[in-house]
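Allow me, if you will, to draw on your knowledge of protein folds for a short while. A protein sequence and the structure tokens that stand for its backbone fold form the material at issue. I would ask you to consider whether the tokens describe a fold that such a sequence might reasonably adopt. Thank you for your consideration; the sequence and its tokens are set out here:
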Amino acid sequence: MSETRSPLPLLFRRRSSGEIKNLTSVSSSLLPAFGTIVDEGHLQLKKYVIAPYDRRYRLWQTFLVVLVVYSAWASPFELAFGKVASGSLEPVDLVVDAFFVVDIILTFFIAYLDKSTYLLVDDRKKIALRYVKKLWFPMDVASTLPFQFLYRIFTGKMHRGDVFGFLNLLRLWRLRRVSELFTRLEKDTRFSYYWTRYCKLIAVTLFAVHSAGCFYYWLAASHGQPENTWIGSLVHDFKHRNIWLGYTYSMYWSIVTLTTVGYGDLHAVNTGEKIFNMLYMLFNISLTAYLIGNMTNLIVHSAARTFAMRDAINQILNYGSKNRLPEGLREQMLAHMQLKFKTAELKQEAVLENLPKAIRSSVAQHLFRRTAENTYLFKGVSEDFIAQLVTEMKAEYFPPKVEVILQNEIATDFYILVSGAVDILTYKNGTEQFLSKLGSADMAGEIGVFFNIPQPFTVRTRRLSQVIRLSHHDFKQMLQPHSEDGKTIISNFIQYLKGLKQEMLEEIPYVTELLGGLTTEHTVPNEGTHNHEAPSYHGDPNVEEETSKSITSTFFIRVIVHGHHPNENAKEDDMMGKLINLPDSIEGLFRLAEKKFGKRGSKVLMVDGSEVEELRALRENDHLFIF
């Protein structure tokens, strides 16, 4: 009973033995079927059966391509100059044919891929039946037989008729090997696609020129009146002159005609030559279109990014002119667009989007993990959280003197600086003021994200800077199952706020009051946090119990609290209420309200009089009445 072999174990075996150096040399069609069971008993093909991707067999195929190139030149040449077929070229032809006879025999031992199961078939009977039933076998045999040599052996006579010249043209069947070689090279990343395609176009052109010239010379040589031919009218007794003289004339005519120059010195004389000229020129139209189309495609493909960049820059210039944008803003837009195209190959999104998630995660770990660990906000968090965090980070580049964050814009992302430097700026009374400078592993934009307020500062690059960006939404989603890491992050954030310069704190409204509330309600001692002092609770057991609960969110919800019933007329100083960050529990809310209003409440109502039972139902800027 015949057996099939999965190619996958063979790939492992051959790679481990050092025979496959590059995965691009393995045919993409040699893939195992889904559900194929691979075991150690299927690591070997049957005896005397060769794998189609075997390195030695590939070298043999490459050697045959060299012989095919000779056959492609010799077959039309022997048709035109028949005496060389039984003369100087005959021994070479016999040697070449012998190599192809060996290849025919080898083909009966080459395993093939079953297209229905995608398994390698190594049963020799199946391999032989498949080869014999296909067109390849009779054509391989016909293109290999030395008909003129066999005729001389069986008859003992030398025959120089044209019939053997046309039979020799069957060797052109071997050209499929050249086509297969170019197809494989075009898919092999070790070779330039441009130069592989370029060489293929040159090979097609040379073969067309050579074949047309040889056939045109054959028309003259086989004509009944040699002087009434395109070459006989110029070269007397050309058939008995030097072979290379006739070949030179033929190539000259073919090239001049192919390039549509047509000097007129060599022109058709009889009807047969005129018909052939018409057919050749029609063929030239198709060949020229093929060559021009392919070359244009190669050139356009290589310059596609340049064209796209020029179009984008022109659109920016037109947009800036129509909307009368300031010159400085136009320069920023142009600089950012140019940097985008210069760093396109470094952007990981386009490269990684089609890869499995595990590979994308590994790449992100390699690129961003060390930077994230050195950031103050993530000091002391768990390894698992860091691993999830870096997976969601996106790399971006900014040219010099470009705003990364604008003051008062909506806070949707925060940034970690990988390289370069940025300035922290603010605007007062229409003037720009410098506050601080950030370098590698520093963060920007996290204050607006954490407090859910418009960004308090403008962040502008000093020089070419690389940053990694993390969105507010992704960060919040990752923190929900990591309550202890969330407490560590809040503790790090509070310590960072406490260390800010006074002039920066002044630019963040109500930050001093919020910072006092955070210290009481949202922080816990964290033993895993390094280089930060744990906040003190002054021994308050209620605060410790409250802060030990799992936090529901790292991003604070701001609410406005009032110390009276919603239907009561409040005092003038309580009309506006007090803005606070929502604690984790109603009990914590009561304690905070007691601190703000000096009296303990027992109920929390909304503006419409409905009583609040769960804090999770509250939204940003809700008004709460505590009494």
Summary: Residues 1-43, 519-554 have pLDDT under 50 and may be disordered.
